[in-house]
Amino acid sequence: MSTNTGRIYTRRYCRLVSKKAKLAFVLLLPVLMLAGCGIGVKKVLSNSQLKTEFNNNTRIMLSARGYAGNQVTNKKTKTVKLSKTNQEKVKKEQKEVQRSLNKLNNSRLLTGYPRSVKSYTEGVNKYLNLLLQDKISKKTLNKQFHQNTVKGMEIVSEYQNGKGSTLFNLALTADEASGYKPEVKSKGVTLKPTKTKNKSTVTHDPYKQLRKVKKQENEQNHIKKVNREPRVITLKIVLIALSALLILLIFLQPSKQDDAMNALSDTGGATLFTRPKPRGMQRLLINSTRVCTACIVVVLIVLNQLMK
To answer: What are the residue boundaries of the structural domains of the chain, listed by start?
Structure first.
């Protein structure tokens, strides 16, 4: 009598555990769906924070260029070498750049603005590494500087309404002093050496042509986004429907705890290895759950690609 009572309580306990496990899975499913869509726990940097990081890195790049002095502009000089004192200063500035890179890497790069600032920061870090070498070609150093300037022009034009800060305007002036000027081409922006005699000041608007190119690109991207929006909405509706169907299928499936407890009883051991395969409705529910899970995975992958 006591044995039967123990079995009854054990079965009730197993059923309760099974229900709790299903409830935990249902609660965990939305979290997994959000993670599949690319939604993480990283902090999002605001536009003002990104602009601050951009200006700080520009200041560091100008300061590092100032440590080289006239070596980067003198025509007779072919190589650049910093003194030990200036190398120590550059190393301190490099720590600030590394801090900025870590801050950007630990943030959510949802749009092109943080990605562009990160790329710009990496270019500044590369420029500092070149300066720390024993002897570096002046041409290589100036080339890296003007590549950073081009990236900065794209950021200012696209994400800062074409209004460059005083620091970045100084970077443009320094870039022209090295013999480069901005020139817009059909596939973006490049810098081309200029033969003008007066290189001390910027005599043209470096953003005017660039704004035209970026405006055309933004219009094309807007058209693509508008055409893509109906598909995104449709996939989201399909994802919600599949999730609800999956939850329903999980609750409709019979519990397997009873079979496990019967296998441990005196008479259940004989049927442990002769248990029939699921048939009928049970088999349909299991196969439907597998198909529904696979469909959710496919929809999440497609939706993630469309939302990039």
So the answer is: 2-36+223-307, 47-206
